[in-house]
Amino acid sequence: xxxxxxxxxxxxxxxxxxxxxxxxxxxxxxxxxxxxxxxxxxxxxxxxxxxxxxxxxxxxxxxxxxxxxxxxxxxxxxxxxxxxxxxxxxxxxxxxxxxxxxxxxxxxxxxxxxxxxxxxxxxxxxxxxxxxxxxxxxxxxxxxxxxxxxxxxxxxxxxxxxxxxxxxxxxx
Length: 172
Hints:
Blueprint: E1 2-13, E2 16-27, E3 31-33, H1 35-40, H2 49-59, H3 64-75, H4 81-101, E4 118-122, E5 125-129, H5 132-171
Antiparallel strand pairs: 1-2, 2-3, 4-5
């Protein structure tokens, strides 16, 4: 690899923009390589790992526009809502790729969560993951409630008929 000299690049971090001057190398097989970028975790991103984490955490419970505004308010880093969306989506794709390759495994199950319910957030939309046992319990409860409602309705109709019959007798 041939030394192509020092190159300066700006990366956005949780503490604001950081300008880094590092040695860059070039080869016909790999193209341009900056070893310092690997050490800093910024090879494929112009955003630091800490900033990417903060953006993803802020986007868990709110839409991208409020997350962008809160990022500016909390850490004085200005990113557009579309930049926030791009960061979150890219991080999500990275996690999915790691899960599919087996490099990243979730260390808990729904049984480890409160009431065996795990809620995940994507784009501010909360989606509960319900176990099969919980689904059966809810279905059984609905059937029981439906039967009780049917019995109550029948009793109510029978009661109305009795009241109507009593009124008819009183009219005669």
